[in-house]
Amino acid sequence: MQRRELTIALAGNPNCGKTTLFNKLTGSRYHVGNYPGVTVEQKIGEVEFQEYRLKLIDLPGIYGLTAYSPDEVVARNVLLKEKIDVVINVVDATSLERGLNLTVQLKELGIPMVLALNMVDAAREIGLTVDCTKLSQCLHFPAVPVVGTKGDGFPGLLQAVIRAAEGNSEFNHIFYGAEIEKAINTVTLMISENLDVQYDWRIKESFLLRWLAVKLLESDRAVKAEINTLIQDGKLEEAVQKGFREVFRLLGKDPEAVIINQRYSAARKIFKGVVSENKWKRITVTEKIDKIILNKYFGLPIFFVIMWILFRLIFSLGGPFTNAIEWGFSSLSTLLITFLPEGLFRSILVDGIIGGVGGVITFLPNILLLFLGIALLESTGYMARAAFIMDRMMTKAGLHGKSFIPMLLGFGCSIPALMATRILENPRDRIVTMLVVPLMSCGARLPVYTLLAAAFFETDIAGSVVFSIYVAGMILAVIMAKVLRSSVVKGPSEPFIMELPPYRLPVMKSVLIQMINRAKMYLKKAGTVILLASIIIWFFFSFSFSGNKGLIQYYPAAPEKSIAGDIGHALEPVLTPLGLDWKSGVVLLSGLAAKEVVVSTMGTLYSIQDNTDLSSAQDGSTNGLTQRVREQSGLTPLTSYVFMLFVLIYIPCISTVAVFHQETGTWRWPLFLVGYTFALAWIVCFVVYRGGLFLFYS
Question: Quick check: pTM over 0.85?
Fold first, then answer.
């Protein structure tokens, strides 16, 4: 049977349960990517219901349709410029009044809507009852109670969506008052006389014109810039300014303030008419937990204990799986060495591909556990509180807790963390945050820490060693924020305002789907970027200058005399004061491409070195990477820790520098980032190495 297709957009505030509802509806039938031209994540899935195939678009969480952040720009552009049949407005029943503020804005677009009143069970627990029949009457479109985590109410929700798509929905908009409405009508008329409304817009003409007029009176910069490219004779700007002056003369306020107040008043009026509250309201579980978690004395220690437990679990639980994968690649190398004749092909296969890529894939379990832990903390609502807890420390550094949100994202990857600094309104706060975000240990660095900790520290303390590196990054980020804020980027900071979502039990299916998607991305990177880098690194370790007219020849027996060896020896004088040698120099240099390449370089280097000593191992056996690093790297527990610190501090990858340039529009700050992180890495490592020698070897 041919199913009719409908395109449905899910819109709602952050933390309203929208993505949980999306995941529950679509199951695993969705794909994740980025919206064209931006790094904002896009999720599109499908669900079949009756004779319809519904294409669901999970929009980024937003509070309004005035585009301040990339998330809001993306969500608004999808609603305005794509063919959306129905909008499902997901609203948290425990925060209904705030959610309705977005609802009244979405109504103005004139797109058929259904309100999904999510978490009605949680609302009942805190003594709130919402009359959905009254709510539907007030909004003039269906309001359906649902519980996204359980799937309760989904059939009724989908049925309401289909009715909204098939029927003639009743649309209305806010009445902003006679003065504002007069200004809106004047600007609307001017737009209609001069603008071709078919230009890249999909919503109905009558609603579009009024919406554009409202946005111009709100001083929406994005709308103003786009309209001004189409209407350039100055008449529209004149009409807008006339409306501004008239409203200000009559009300003593600018139109933007009046419009915002009217929206809040409309949302408040609807809320008061549909919600009944138990006057004997009991203290919620969230409030009880927050009395401890957000305590000014216990909050920060609890945060560090939680992170310490996370990294201990990553190391202890991931260890057996990592060892099994390492054994598998080692056995494969042994098999190939036994059956393949010695030569170029065997070397590139065993030393280049298996030694490099295999070394990276070995640590996939640790990466998965890291993202699993972060996803669990996010889904429970704790990560938002971590930003709140860190606000006091960040304030002393000249920033505020909101800056800690991109820093937390830096635990995953520095690139989206840099993008996330767009949430900061103050340009100075944003620049400083971008300069310290790379000091947070991204997931790509974890395999390096795990490898060295396993090689040089006992199992029972290895997890704590890795945790200490992460803490060192956070402390350095706060210190450098203070230094930069008081020297390079001076200026006042802004107050911190943040909404804390209620605690929720994580939806394990959604968490596992996130983890699986991360695994796919990691393996894709291992099979593309890291594979190419491993082959290039193998070439530099396997070939050398012959000295005869500068010719390059295959010379696998001595990596120290290879092209890479020459580069390493050139860097050695800079690294010797840190207790590091030429091998460490080559490995650190390769990490500029991506921090996973550090592990693949070690895999290639020590695989070549291991396999050139087969005369002493007549059975042709090879050691696992951890053992080879322990035996051949020349590192000690102290110098391995110094090496980890250097990996922590200097730039995560070249891609980070490129994104920094893209975000700031100048090379000044990206080049400053490169210079100061290398200098900071050298200074910190020098102090730690010399201090370690004094404490442990004096």
Answer: no
